[in-house]
Design goal:
With 306 residues, this protein is of the alpha/beta class. The protein contains 12 helices and 15 strands. The protein has a single domain, classed as NAD(P)-binding Rossmann-like Domain (Rossmann fold, 3-Layer(aba) Sandwich), CATH 3.40.50.
């Protein structure tokens, strides 16, 4: 299978490595020298029969997309770099549409498109469970952009003969993103954490592509156990051998008055995300809960403190 990963970053690099190790040919797409260097590093690390190539292109520049090779499947995992809603729209909506249209003009068109979205599109459910059948209700400008991009991935792609899949990622963590200080230092605000390890985020996309499942639908990519933030912080502190952190309610955090409007809206949202659909599609997690996923980070933390 020929796979093009547009925005081959944190998850995309791991996806490229896993696909190449299993004999697939992958092209990672980035617009910066540093991004291209990261893809080249993965190429040198692969051990399977597949290969990893790097191509420079910018989703916001349609002319640059002529450099993209033909593909059986395209994974759109580009990032807006943590900027605001306008930048997010430029990448997630306009950039995604540019990529779809670039491939839609070719013969043959790719068979699959996977767009990586976020569980943030669900908005607030007061701690209740949500799944793929739950109507989305984005509450911030950026999550409304993500919801629009989901429609592009499913509807615009379908009109051009490409089957789209929306992979709604929960909070990503893993190597270089464990963020232990967030929970061990300072205060922790109440609410639920929905998480997925980077390796399982990449593994889930690999699984959907190789098994040819999840066509034309959203799929929640989240581990088995949403956890209340206070409980997670206490567990992590105990595992690391440090004092448990201070706790704050949502009301206390909001009353402090130091949050942006977008940050306050995020704090007000609470939900528990189900991975029942992904499990039913046959994916087996490497890190089914945070306990397994944080094991290496905890070991490294305790080693450094000796």
């Amino acid at each position: 299978m020929r796979v093009v990963v547009v925005g081959c970053g944190y998850v995309g690099l791991e996806l490229a490595r896993r696909l190449a190790d299993r004999g697939h040919d992958v092209t990672g797409v980035r617009r910066s020298d540093a991004g291209l260097d990261a893809i080249e590093a993965v190429r040198n690390e692969t051990t399977g029969d597949g290969r990893v190539d790097a191509v420079r292109a910018d989703t916001t520049d349609p002319d640059s997309l002529d450099a993209l090779p033909d593909a059986d499947a395209v994974v759109f995992a580009a990032s807006s770099g943590g900027r605001g809603a306008a930048a997010a729209r430029e990448v997630y909506v306009d950039g995604l549409r540019n990529v779809i249209e670039a491939y839609g003009s070719r013969t043959p068109v790719p068979d699959r498109l996977v767009y990586t979205s976020s569980t943030g599109v669900y908005g607030d459910h007061d701690g209740a469970w949500v799944d793929e059948g739950t109507p989305i209700d984005p509450t911030t400008d950026k999550t409304r952009v993500l919801a629009e991009a989901e429609r592009v991935a499913l509807e615009t792609a379908s009109a051009l003969g490409v089957d789209g899949t929306v992979a709604r990622f929960a909070g990503l963590y893993g190597p270089n993103r464990y963020r232990l200080e967030r929970y061990l230092n300072g205060s922790v605000t109440a609410g639920f954490l929905n998480m997925v390890h980077r390796d399982d985020a990449a593994g889930a996309i690999r699984h959907l592509l190789e098994t040819d499942r999840g066509r034309g639908e959203p799929v929640l990519v989240v581990d088995d156990e949403p956890v209340e933030k206070h409980a997670f912080a206490d567990w992590l502190a105990d595992a690391c051998g440090v004092p448990r952190p201070e706790k704050r309610s949502k009301a206390e955090r909001i009353a402090a008055g130091d949050l942006s409007a977008a940050a306050e809206r995020r704090i007000r949202t609470s939900k528990r995300c189900s991975n029942e659909r992904l499990r039913a599609l046959g994916y087996e997690f490497v890190y089914p809960t945070f306990r397994e996923g944080y094991r290496d980070a905890i070991r490294a933390f305790r080693t450094l403190r000796r």
